[in-house]
């Protein structure tokens, strides 16, 4: 809401109007008046030719008054609180990493020396990823072993000893294949990191001022 300062000119207009004395005294003694009250005063009395001319008698009030709706805090959303907590945790992890690991005073754009050491949050993600991979490999081996065990009994009617050997054989094949695929993935990731580290920062003078 917009507020106007009750200047001497506006006080004179209010004092010479025909409004109630108590309301007149209240408006004159106040240091500011709202836009709605000023408009209502103009519509009821019309002391000037236009409302714009009445506003010209005033000044925009820029005092210490702050409307209540501006100071009322809005409730924070759940997503905002979770995001801020995530940022605080990352900042604490970075502070801990800066305290534990000493870094060079100057760093370039492609300086990856500080990225070799993982932060606690990154280590947690890495351990979680490894546990998930091990669990997935175990599920794959167990599924194949159970399928071979069921198939050798329902279709081939083999002896239990042969069934166990076949289950172990195919289980080992699946285990080796899963480990090979995972290690290949890690090697490709490591090669990509090494390739990225090998990049050098180049500077080129585009324009010089003399």
Automatic annotation (TrEMBL):
BP-aspect Gene Ontology terms: vacuolar proton-transporting V-type ATPase complex assembly
Q: Where are the transmembrane segments?
A: 131-151, 163-185
**Per its UniProt entry, which superkingdom is the organism in?**
Eukaryota
A Pfam family matched by this chain, by name? Vma12
Identify the main location.
Answer: endoplasmic reticulum
Membrane topology listed for this record: Multi-pass membrane protein
InterPro entries assigned to the protein according to its UniProt record, in alphabetical order: ATPase_Vma12
Location(s) in or outside the cell = Endoplasmic reticulum membrane
Going by the UniProt record, its keywords in alphabetical order are:
Endoplasmic reticulum, Membrane, Transmembrane, Transmembrane helix
User: Could you state one GO cellular component term attached to this entry?
Assistant: endoplasmic reticulum membrane
- Name-wise, this protein is Piso0_001526 protein
